Amino acid sequence: MLVGAVVALAAFGLYVLTLAPSVMPGDYAEFQLCAAVLGVPHPTGYPLYVLLGKLFTLLPFGDVAYRVNFSSAAYMAGTVWLLYFIALRLARFVRLDRGWWSAGIGAGLFAVAPTVWSMSLVARSYALNALLVASVISFLLLWRHSGRIRWFYFTYLFIGLSMVHHGTTYLLLPAYGLYLLLVEVERRRSKTDVQPIRRWIFGVASLLLGLSPMLFLVYRFVGGSSYYWGNPSSWKDFFSLLTGGPFHNQVMGFGWGPLSQIERIDFGIGELSGQYTAAGIAVGLLGLAILWRSSRGEAMLFTLMMLGNFLFAMNYSLVGYLYFIPTFLIWGICMAIGLAWTAHYLLARLAGRGVVRYAVAGVGVMLAGAILFAGVVRYPNIDQSGQTQVRDEALALLRAAPQGASLYLDWEDLSVIRFYRMVYGMRPDVTLYSGDPADWAKLVWCDWSNDTVAYVGKFAGAIPPIIERDFRLEPAPMGRRVLNALNSKLYEVPPCGMCATCR
Fold this sequence. Notes:
single chain, 5-stranded mixed beta sheet, 503 residues
């Protein structure tokens, strides 16, 4: 286990070295805000992430945003260690020698996989999701292999926590359920089960305990919150947020047609290859085949988990590539098994030839070097440690804006300004607008006609054309400052009906 600890600590050091130093735009800022004020972010609410994130905001270093970013580094480093633990345990279970070095290689390759590494540096839900999935796998294996009841309870507890944290976990439940059923059958056949009904009752209690962070969302809905995404006003709105209703149209967003699905499969394989290369895919397939031959329970578990995760991620039209991380995790385990089997096979068949042992050791060194090389090559493109532009521009805008100014911003920038307002109490006097930029022009005209200074940010990467056409602008942080209207007659009649003056 020392090797696993070294790999995990090395990964953690790499993540901290490249960690985003402060607030980031869009969802990142929203998660940072909600962790600080115990708010509720976009669907599905992520109560576990918020509650744990609050603990990280109490750390005595960095600003609040950095501390929440730091949580992702900790979660993913923990996942790296669990990957090592799972791979080592499986290698020993199927009687493969030298599993420690192959488990270390698998964990290292996972740690520097581009998507995994990038999601370890910012405030997003994916690192914690990976940690919870790895934890469930670990407890499932411990429950089957040791038979100690505490692992049964931990399994159900962490399944509940996973379900609360990320909706994609529901796609993994069939795999978990079949594996648990397999263990139940094995225990019944061996007649080693004692008081199973009592165990099941406490198992359900453990699952409910895992689901309990969901009560935080109810508490915030009933008691009120300084920030609650979508401002739900009815229980229908609440359940829509809880189930990810606003994003349901993104599921199967590329269509059900065979040609579309072939393209999506190609996309998913490309994502897997982008993490581990074609050679990694081949070694992972070998490892999965070894498991199907030697440990079918675990092979079934991993195969069903990957199918559920892979099919969803490849068809989710909103940043679907980020949802592949559980597949990357399992593939890292399979690669470790494939490498362990290769080394074991060569040593078993050619044990009399001392050169083979040196060759296996040499391959291990080469793979460790490949991990180091991949880290060096990917470092410049993944490193977030110098990303201070968002913070600097937001603070510059908040310092420059006169009393009572209006800020028209898209979601990406609005979330940053909202973070500074709600976490640090900065500039409560300014008025924030988002929504449809087609409505901004009339509101900006109302501001100008009432001597209110207005700033217009970039929407989808550009200043809305109607603003550039009808107003004279000057450069300002995060966008442009409105100087005057070029054609005010366009907005004089009828009244806009949206601003305070027209109402």
